[in-house]
């Protein structure tokens, strides 16, 4: 296997994953573009880790097809070494030193960089002679990051690897990721609850909700669709009528409503003429509104009814 300079793409076609009576993924179809940093977002239980496990060939889907770099990754001798999946839970040799763990991983990852691994060990103040079983939760998370970034795999999936890190360490991780990604492009998939922190890293966004794809698009496009409308209640209500309203807050006679949709120049002028203030919506807030249980439960029921 030779690592590419642009990373590997991922395709899921009608993928369903069941665990007994529980449906973790429900007819998921999506594409992860090669050579991008993609955010895999969703509330707890949305199916993020299950999706990542299927892509990394940890298991096979109940139904549908998973393709990595155009091939089924399951027991694929070419593809498997090029997919690095790092989970917050670890997946390391607890009773061996960090140095031994790095040697083991480097033997399975053709693009592994010992130089980068050394730099990251220094960055996170990790002693190579220590054993993972003797590390704090934060240091274990940091070592997972070392393994993930130093692998330089064409497809690297980092699933909540920041958990346990303090804020300075998290931002050091983000900076290290961006710096190495710029020099060694590949496909990076980040799963995180700290959307406000990783937002600046993301080129594409996939949002899962109740095992289904809620959003799959470029991050800039999604940001452009989020809009806050603030002003007198009656004027706001007239302006947002018929639009996709995500949330609304009222304070006395003033209302701030979050809507999803891109306005035309004429609509912007009309809003300003009505004395309304228009503003952007952070990706974190969009995510919260889009995955609100009351909102998505109704949409999911309607979708399943239409499928029957």
Automatic annotation (TrEMBL):
Gene3D superfamilies: P-loop containing nucleotide triphosphate hydrolases. Keywords: ATP-binding, Nucleotide-binding. Transmembrane segments: none annotated. SMART domains: AAA (SM00382). Residues 10-235 form the ABC transporter domain. InterPro entries: AAA+_ATPase, ABC_transporter-like_ATP-bd, P-loop_NTPase. This is ABC transporter. The lineage of its organism: Bacteria, Bacillati, Actinomycetota, Actinomycetes, Micrococcales.
């Amino acid at each position: 296997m030779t690592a590419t300079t642009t990373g590997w793409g991922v395709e899921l076609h009608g993928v369903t994953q069941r665990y007994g009576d529980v449906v973790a993924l429900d007819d998921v179809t999506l594409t992860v573009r090669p050579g991008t940093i993609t955010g895999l977002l969703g509330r707890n239980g949305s199916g993020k880790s299950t999706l990542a496990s299927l892509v990394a060939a940890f298991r096979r889907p109940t139904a549908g097809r998973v393709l990595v770099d155009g091939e089924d990754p399951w027991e694929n001798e070419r593809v498997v070494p090029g997919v690095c999946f790092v989970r917050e839970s670890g997946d390391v040799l607890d009773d061996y030193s960090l140095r031994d763990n790095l040697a083991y991983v480097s033997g399975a990852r053709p693009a592994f960089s010992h130089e980068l691994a050394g730099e990251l060990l220094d960055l996170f103040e990790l002693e190579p002679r220590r054993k993972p079983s003797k590390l704090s939760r934060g240091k274990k998370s940091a070592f997972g990051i070392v393994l993930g970034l130093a692998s330089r795999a064409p497809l690297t999936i980092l699933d909540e690897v920041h958990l346990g890190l303090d804020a300075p360490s998290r931002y050091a991780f983000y900076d290290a990721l961006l710096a190495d990604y710029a020099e060694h492009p590949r496909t990076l998939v980040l799963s995180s609850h700290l959307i406000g922190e990783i937002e600046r890293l993301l080129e594409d966004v996939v949002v899962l909700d109740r095992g289904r794809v809620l959003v799959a698009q470029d991050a800039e496009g999604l940001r452009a669709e989020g809009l806050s409308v603030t002003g007198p209640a009656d004027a706001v209500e007239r302006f947002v009528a018929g639009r996709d309203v995500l949330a609304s807050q009222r304070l006395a006679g003033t209302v701030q409503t979050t809507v999803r949709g891109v306005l035309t120049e004429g609509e912007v002028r009309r809003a300003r003429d009505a004395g309304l203030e228009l503003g952007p919506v952070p990706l974190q807030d969009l995510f919260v509104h889009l995955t609100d249980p009351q909102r998505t439960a109704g949409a999911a029921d309607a979708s399943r009814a239409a499928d029957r």
